[in-house]
UniProtKB/TrEMBL annotation:
Compositionally biased spans, kind Pro residues: 29-43, 91-100
Species this protein is from: Herbidospora galbida
Record protein name field: DUF4352 domain-containing protein
Superkingdom of the source species: Bacteria
Region (Disordered): 1-122
Length: 302
């Protein structure tokens, strides 16, 4: 700031600056516009791909640049030279073995000079007895095979049947069993086919002591009639606790079972159960120690 000028703030112009300025906007003609540079267009670079170009002409025999190294001439009838062993070969190639001599077979004799063919032996009693023995083996072996299958799946041994009067409880192997069986309508609500009847079975299990709390296996359940026919059953609910405790002793736990039987045996067919000797406290490595069959069957009369 000039010291001779009076003091002023930063935004005030100095007194020496003119306040009226003429418009200095250019109003003359504009200069000509320079056109932008446009490069020349490149020629098309498309390559013909179809149809394929014709093959080049075959070179003549005396053309330079097409000659190849000639093969060595080998005289006709001479064997090919054997390859020389390289430094990697442990030993030279062995010579080819001589072909085996050709054995000349004598010409076959004429049919007149040939010996007569021996007569075939007639079927004797040996084959007959062999066939009879095979039939006996089949006759005996078939029931044996069936027996073995029965032994595998049901031991084949006679059951020990325990008869229980209707409405009574039976104590067997630390567990008391009781059953009820009654007719019911189709649980699905649909109309049942003629000659079929739904049955509801309630099997009650009660542990009599500490050992009975470990016998938690669901028994095999069947319905049989007087003619020996059997009908399968399905367990719907099982209230037996899997964790044994002393509180379960003397307490009844129901097992709800359903089945379908013919109508004519619905009131006379009886319940058969086969309790299992499986114990829930058996270690895994000892499960195969006791493979004795469960032969005891409880028969509940109606």
């Amino acid at each position: 700031m000039n010291q001779q000028e009076p003091p002023r703030d930063w935004f005030s112009p100095p007194p020496s600056q003119p306040t009226e300025i003429d418009d200095t906007t250019y109003s003359g003609p504009l200069p000509p516009m320079i056109p932008a540079y446009i490069p020349p267009l490149a020629p098309p670079s498309d390559v013909l791909v179809w149809p394929p170009p014709p093959p080049p002409p075959a070179p003549e025999e005396d053309d330079e640049g097409f000659s190849t190294q000639p093969f060595p001439a080998i005289a006709a009838g001479r064997p090919l030279p054997r390859p020389r062993p390289s430094f990697q070969d442990p030993e030279p190639y062995p010579p080819f073995p001589d072909p085996p001599p050709v054995r000349e077979e004598p010409p076959p004799a004429s049919p007149e000079a040939s010996e007569p063919e021996p007569e075939r032996k007639k079927k004797g009693w040996g084959r007959f007895f062999a066939g009879a023995a095979g039939s006996v083996v089949l006759a005996v072996g078939a029931p044996a095979a069936a027996n073995w299958s029965t032994y595998v799946y049901g031991t084949g041994e006679p059951d020990i049947v325990h008869v229980i009067p209707a409405g009574e409880t039976y104590e067997f192997e630390h567990v008391a069993w009781r059953s009820t069986m009654e007719r019911i309508a189709n649980p699905a609500g649909a109309a049942e086919k003629p000659g079929r009847q739904w049955m509801k079975i309630v099997l009650t299990r009660t542990a009599l002591d500490r050992d009975g709390t470990f016998l938690t296996g669901v028994p095999d359940v069947e319905i049989r009639d007087a003619a020996g026919r059997k009908w399968r059953t399905e367990v719907l609910e099982n209230a037996t606790p899997l964790d044994p405790s002393d509180d379960q002793i003397g307490k009844a736990f129901p097992i709800e079972i359903y089945a379908v039987v013919p109508t004519d045996v619905a009131d006379t067919a009886e319940l058969f159960i086969r309790p299992l000797n499986y114990r829930s406290d058996t270690p895994t490595e000892d499960l195969t120690d006791d493979l004795s069959a469960d032969l005891d069957v409880l028969r509940f009369l109606r």
